[in-house]
Design a protein that fits this description.
heterodimer, A: alpha+beta, Alpha-Beta Plaits, 7-stranded antiparallel β-sheet, B: alpha+beta, Uridine Diphospho-n-acetylenolpyruvylglucosamine Reductase, domain 3, 9 helices
Chain lengths: 473, 298
């Protein structure tokens, strides 16, 4: 069937847009998770019509398809189902229009997140969601995963920054969900589509909201001898009515790894540090910095470092954003988790995370979005050690469970994908999951658009395929 | 975990909704009142809790927005839901208030909902934390769904700090110039001649913005005509030439308040079909708020 499928695709697309050689297809078996699938063919769409042609052919042949941006997803959301068509949108990478006055832009899904902000910087605006992968992740991927990032604390994650989406629906029809006007008729299908992990169709154009660049910025690094004091300060700041642009936490192991990597003078002898950024007009920024310092003094803060210029500010952020690279100096492999807990539960849940890692004889580093309670425990290990991968998976499972038990959620920004679909019942009842499945069926009655993701197998009944390699739950 | 008073009220509400006959929901008539001639139910009311350090609040969907505002004011917070009717009504209509430019749309205030489905089940969507991407976003689907997919029972909302020093200013300058100059105004209203600007913040910042942009403080505000037109904000300048002044436009947003209702819009067949399928999946018998077609509300 694959030969017929490929022939049919080549009738509608140029031959060089359709790749089925093993060496090429194998490059698309994985995303940035540790899971892998087996696609039949990879297509490089260049236009909305290309995407529609591919989806129509997938329907003719009854084969699943999965859209793929840059493949930076961490939950296996872009891992292809057995025999699927991978629809790469990486060549749909044009910024179509920018309205700097009303702060909106239409972009194609393959535009890279940071490229967008760089190309519109001269207009005094930026795209707010800034995942750690922002140099390589695509806007289409951000839409699929409802991506976050350090600077989403004050302004919200991707859904708050997507106004409209032109989509090819799973039946091959084309429509626009939401749009430039603020109150389109009907249901908020834009809202339903964002974060649907590729299961409701393929985005072919995205209307994004742009944010004003702030006139003033203060970036502060505060360190603590006790992780709990730093975590408590996060709640104190919010309770005081201050919502910084970002509040990030790094623990000691992370500070040490990063310091060896970038030599930024980080407080490596302290248990944890908070990287806090306050933005706005100068009066507000100065008063918020003062207030945060006052609050920190009540939590036994060690040092307080306020970046004196853009160079120092960039260095502090480089420390935060190079954490994942720096970690390779400790062990060759890591498993990055993503859960959210209520802010006031951070001290308690962090203590549990350390305890879980210790019990499984694993090293854990914490570098995360403390401001919104979004934990990112990084379990570092050497996959060559016998049995260690099992321990990593067991520890990860426990971390997710203690987060949900603390009143938290399964994922703050990575999504569910394949990684956590079997954990969905920790948060949702059968009835809750059936409602999600109903919405999926409304968008995709034939269940061809990225099947097997998000919903646990029973609720997704009918779309059970083989469990991909590396899936651990 | 033992059931709270709100849990008990939600269960009772689900039993009121039932699972067979046509049913409508009523509160403070935010939607314009219940569907005539149909059995009516009312959602639970009352603020269950406020967590100031989480900036979250839980309340019954039948709680008056005014009651939520009053409760939040005591802890120095507020919520981005327009000051009208009940929380459930405001969410089911999904229309944002005039602070949307600065505060974002009403849909972004919702973190978790429980609703009663057409089958009479209590269904939870979303999660209690300020950040959450676990599963599909049914919360946003329900905001603006006019009670046609499920009846909201209770919600967890994201709150925000009460604005400091919030004041209205007025100017005769071009509103788009002001939009470019001012840092994050909360609201900008324009009637074709005059622009009203709502600002808040640190006293020095306010003084600086006012001086640089030549704004004058005012106690007057335009009266908003009753009907809402939704336009691309880029189209608003066209109002200047073609209209006789009977409008108030939200600059940077695209809502235009007018005396006459907006003309019906055409919807492509794929959009109509998708709506039909969603309604069918959630309410196959068409029993919830029967007769309301969300694609043709004016």
């Amino acid at each position: 069937m694959t030969t017929d499928l490929v022939s049919r695709l080549r009738q509608r697309l140029r031959a060089d847009q359709v790749r089925d050689a093993d060496a090429e297809v194998n490059l698309y078996r994985r995303d940035a998770s540790n899971m892998a699938g087996h696609p039949a063919v990879v297509c490089f769409a260049e236009t909305t019509d290309d995407v529609r042609a591919i989806v129509q052919i997938a329907n003719e042949f009854g084969v699943p398809f999965v859209a793929r941006g840059s493949g930076t997803g961490l939950a296996g959301g872009a891992v292809p189902t057995e025999g699927a068509i991978v629809v790469s949108t990486s060549k749909m990478n044009r910024i179509l229009s920018v309205d700097p006055v009303n702060r909106q832009a239409w972009v194609e899904p393959g535009v890279l997140n940071l490229d967008l902000s760089k190309q519109i910087a001269h207009l005094g605006v930026h795209f707010a969601p800034d995942p750690s992968s922002q140099q390589t992740c695509s806007i289409g991927g951000n839409v699929a995963n409802n991506s976050g990032g350090p600077h989403c604390l004050a302004d919200g994650v991707t859904s708050a920054h997507v106004l409209g989406v032109e989509v090819v629906l799973p039946d091959g029809s084309i429509t626009t969900l939401g749009g430039e006007d603020p109150e389109p008729d009907g249901y908020d299908l834009r809202g339903a589509f964002v974060g649907s992990e590729g299961m409701f169709g393929i985005a072919t154009k995205v209307c994004v909201k742009l944010m004003q660049n702030p006139p003033d910025v203060a970036t502060m690094l505060l360190d603590f001898a006790d992780v709990a004091d730093g975590a408590q300060l996060v709640s104190d700041i919010i309770a005081a009515g201050i919502v910084p642009a970002a509040v990030e936490m790094m623990d000691q192991l992370c500070l040490q790894a990063v310091e060896e990597f970038i030599h930024a003078g980080l407080p490596v002898h302290q248990a944890a540090a908070l990287l806090i950024e306050v933005v706005g007009l100068p009066g507000a920024v100065a008063s918020h910095v003062d207030r945060i310092c006052e609050l920190a003094a009540h939590r036994d803060v060690g040092g307080v470092r306020v970046a004196v210029d853009d160079v120092e500010r960039a260095l502090l952020w480089k420390g935060r954003k190079s954490a994942f690279g720096a970690i390779a100096r400790i062990k060759p492999n890591y498993y990055l988790h993503d859960t959210v807990v209520p802010r006031h539960k951070l001290p308690e849940v962090l203590a549990q995370v350390y305890e879980i890692a210790e019990r499984h004889e694993l090293l854990v580093l914490n570098v995360f979005h403390a401001g919104d309670g979004n934990l990112h425990p990084l379990l570092v290990y050497d996959a060559r050690e016998p049995g260690v991968t099992d321990r990593v998976h067991r520890a990860g499972d426990e971390i997710v469970r203690v987060s949900v038990e603390a009143g938290g959620v399964l994922s703050g920004e990575h999504g569910i994908g394949l990684e956590k679909r079997e954990l969905m019942p920790l948060m949702f009842s059968d009835v809750d999951l059936a409602a999600q499945s109903d919405l999926r069926r409304a968008f995709d009655p034939e269940m061809l658009s990225n099947p097997d993701k998000v919903l646990p197998s029973p609720a997704g009944c009918g779309d059970i395929h083989s469990v991909p390699e590396g899936a651990w739950v | 975990m033992s059931d709270t008073a709100l849990d008990v009220a939600v269960a009772s509400f689900a039993s009121d909704v039932g699972d067979c006959d046509p049913v409508t929901i009523s509160g403070l008539a935010t939607r314009g009142g219940p569907v005539a001639g149909v059995r009516s139910v009312t959602a639970p009311a009352g603020v269950e809790w406020i967590e100031p350090a989480e900036m979250t609040l839980r309340c019954g969907a039948g709680t008056a927005v005014a009651d939520v505002d009053a409760a939040l004011r005591e802890v120095g917070q507020c919520v981005g839901v327009p000051e009208t009717g009940t929380i459930g009504g405001a969410l089911s209509v999904g229309r944002s208030g005039i602070r949307r430019l600065g505060w974002g749309p009403v849909r972004d205030s919702v973190l978790q909902v429980r609703y009663v489905s057409a089958a009479g089940d209590v269904v939870k969507a979303g999660g209690p934390t300020v950040k959450n991407v676990s599963g599909f976003d049914l919360c946003r689907l329900l905001v603006g769904s006019w009670g046609t997919l499920g009846f909201l029972a209770d919600v967890i909302l994201r709150t925000r700090p009460l604005p400091v020093g919030e004041r209205w200013f007025v100017s005769r300058r071009d509103p788009w110039e002001l939009l470019g100059e001012l840092y994050r105004p909360t609201s900008m209203l324009w009637n074709g001649e005059t622009t009203w600007v709502l600002l808040d913040g640190h006293v020095d910042d306010l003084a600086g913005q006012v001086r640089r942009s030549g704004l004058a403080e005012t106690d007057d505000r335009p009266t908003l005509p009753p009907h809402r037109w939704s336009m691309s904000p880029a189209e608003l300048p066209s109002l200047q030439a073609s209209d006789d002044g009977g409008f108030v436009a939200e600059i940077g947003v695209g809502i235009v308040h007018r005396c006459e209702p907006a003309p019906p819009r055409r919807h492509d067949p794929a959009m109509v079909e998708l709506h039909r399928r969603i309604k069918h999946q959630f309410d196959p018998g068409g029993r919830l708020n029967p007769g309301i077609d969300v694609l043709s509300i004016t």
